[in-house]
Amino acid sequence: MGSNRWYDALLVVSFGGPEKPEDVMPFLENVARGRNIPRERLLEVEAHYQRFGGRSPINQQCRDLIAALDVDVPVYWGNRNWHPFLTDTVRRMKEDGVRKAAAFVTSAYGSYSSCRQYLDDIARARAAVPGAPEIVKLPHYHDHPGFIAAMVDNTRKAIARLPESERESARLVFTAHSIPISMARSSGPSGGLYERQHQRTASLVAEALGGAREWDLVWQSRSGPPHIPWLEPDVCDHLEALHAKGVRAVVVVPIGFVSDHMEVIYDLDVEAKDTAERLGMAFARAATPGTHPRFVAMVKELLAEPEPAPCPATCCPAPRRG
Ligand SMILES: CC1=C(CCC(=O)O)c2cc3nc(cc4[nH]c(cc5[nH]c(cc1n2)c(C)c5CCC(=O)O)c(CCC(=O)O)c4C)C(CCC(=O)O)=C3C
Ligand SMILES: [Fe+2]
């Protein structure tokens, strides 16, 4: 394998997050630039970060993943919204003589926010660095056996944390980041890809667990102005609906996230957990893939594949501003 590699470096591309209180607002300003996010929503999200000492788990998760990777080329790391910024990383890659890098993005799915925006980030960083290396994004891995196996294992462990009497009947609640419905409709080469990929991931995990359990796919972490429709139901509303139907225990499985993010440790471990507690439902949250050995091995398996073809230039277009 080694001699006919199509890449000479691996670039991990992520969202980025603040790691101290004074970084939170500048980080949020980067995220919100050119986007339509109400001020009140940003202040609310700021409070989520400050509740955790101004520190998102995402950067350390990236460092841990990189430390766990077993690949035979140099590994670089660059973010969209916080240090280390992608442009600085691409400059360093160029200085180190990298010619062509494979990009592993910490998002498994297609859509503007989860795929195209990262491609745009890479293109912008390369445009800012004369002589920048070529950078080829690895394909979506939402249904890769390594990604699925990590989530299946983590879901089994979460079920085992429930009170014994609730384990057999516990319902699986798969959750992912909500996006505007218009963005969901325009995702992928023929539309609807974001929801379709999540449906497939959820069904693969549910099947691997024996297929006997009822499951749902719901959404979380809605942003944007209230009059713009986003994917629903929201995970907390859904817990209320399940409770009304007599469900007594849930296992929330964050299939939309490859590692712990603020959306996982706040929106699920605080908000969804509080909702379940208030309703008297037993609640367990499955761990994210993080540095699960099967997930880490998946990165190496993706690199062993032939060079992937790029996404069609027309899929997952940027949303219209408004
Ligand atoms: C699909 C998707 C993913 C999954 C794919 C991927 O992983 O990339 C994702 C990941 C993430 N989103 C993150 C943080 C934020 N997202 C925001 C806002 C938004 N997200 C959106 C979508 C997504 N986001 C959208 C359509 C918006 C509206 C504004 C816009 O059109 O861009 C805002 C603004 C405040 C608010 O929430 O309103 C913040 C702070 C973090 C870092 C968390 C941490 O620090 O641990 C991560 C990994
Ligand atoms: Fe987001």
UniProtKB/TrEMBL annotation:
<comment type="function">
    <text>Involved in coproporphyrin-dependent heme b biosynthesis. Catalyzes the insertion of ferrous iron into coproporphyrin III to form Fe-coproporphyrin III.</text>
</comment>
<comment type="similarity">
    <text>Belongs to the ferrochelatase family.</text>
</comment>
<keyword id="KW-0456">Lyase</keyword>
<feature type="binding site">
    <location>
        <position position="263"/>
    </location>
    <ligand>
        <name>Fe(2+)</name>
    </ligand>
</feature>
<dbReference type="GO" id="GO:0005737">
    <property type="term" value="C:cytoplasm"/>
</dbReference>
<feature type="binding site">
    <location>
        <position position="177"/>
    </location>
    <ligand>
        <name>Fe(2+)</name>
    </ligand>
</feature>
<keyword id="KW-0963">Cytoplasm</keyword>
<dbReference type="InterPro" id="IPR001015">
    <property type="entry name" value="Ferrochelatase"/>
</dbReference>
<dbReference type="GO" id="GO:0046872">
    <property type="term" value="F:metal ion binding"/>
</dbReference>
<dbReference type="InterPro" id="IPR033659">
    <property type="entry name" value="Ferrochelatase_N"/>
</dbReference>
<keyword id="KW-0627">Porphyrin biosynthesis</keyword>
<dbReference type="InterPro" id="IPR033644">
    <property type="entry name" value="Ferrochelatase_C"/>
</dbReference>
<keyword id="KW-0479">Metal-binding</keyword>
<feature type="binding site">
    <location>
        <position position="118"/>
    </location>
    <ligand>
        <name>Fe-coproporphyrin III</name>
    </ligand>
</feature>
<feature type="binding site">
    <location>
        <position position="56"/>
    </location>
    <ligand>
        <name>Fe-coproporphyrin III</name>
    </ligand>
</feature>
<comment type="pathway">
    <text>Porphyrin-containing compound metabolism; protoheme biosynthesis.</text>
</comment>
<keyword id="KW-0350">Heme biosynthesis</keyword>
<protein>
    <recommendedName>
        <fullName>Coproporphyrin III ferrochelatase</fullName>
        <ecNumber>4.99.1.9</ecNumber>
    </recommendedName>
</protein>
<dbReference type="GO" id="GO:0004325">
    <property type="term" value="F:ferrochelatase activity"/>
</dbReference>
<dbReference type="GO" id="GO:0006783">
    <property type="term" value="P:heme biosynthetic process"/>
</dbReference>
<dbReference type="InterPro" id="IPR019772">
    <property type="entry name" value="Ferrochelatase_AS"/>
</dbReference>
<dbReference type="Pfam" id="PF00762">
    <property type="entry name" value="Ferrochelatase"/>
</dbReference>
<keyword id="KW-0408">Iron</keyword>
